[in-house]
């Protein structure tokens, strides 16, 4: 028997959340870059409590974490699909993977700038 889509609103949404949690756990437990970024998010959360950052700073910090982890997750998905479609090295697949990695770099640089704007003044 094939896949049957759940058309009921509540149970369908509940299953979708279950799939999302399963995917997030797979990312956190299998992808080293996500492990590092999740660890940094935890460290920065501890720093936020230690330095008693304000509501606006918390919002920016959480947005930065979400941005980096979200883009990294999409990058991982692109890499997995590319490797599935073309397991051997291919110049065009490498180009696509490099672009996805570049997107992660942009998000990480933005998050780093946010972190510096929040925490550098705390040391001055």
UniProtKB/TrEMBL annotation:
Family affiliation: Belongs to the bacterial diacylglycerol kinase family.
Name the UniProt record assigns to this protein: Diacylglycerol kinase family protein
One Pfam family recorded for the sequence: DAGK_prokar
Xref: InterPro entries: DAGK, DAGK_sf, UDPK
UniProt organism field: Flavobacterium cheonhonense
CDD domains recorded: UDPK_IM_like (cd14265)
Transmembrane feature ranges: 34-53, 99-120
Membrane topology: Multi-pass membrane protein
Subcellular location: Cell membrane
GO terms of molecular function: kinase activity
Keywords carried by this UniProt record: ATP-binding, Cell membrane, Kinase, Lipid biosynthesis, Lipid metabolism, Membrane, Nucleotide-binding, Phospholipid biosynthesis, Phospholipid metabolism, Transferase, Transmembrane, Transmembrane helix
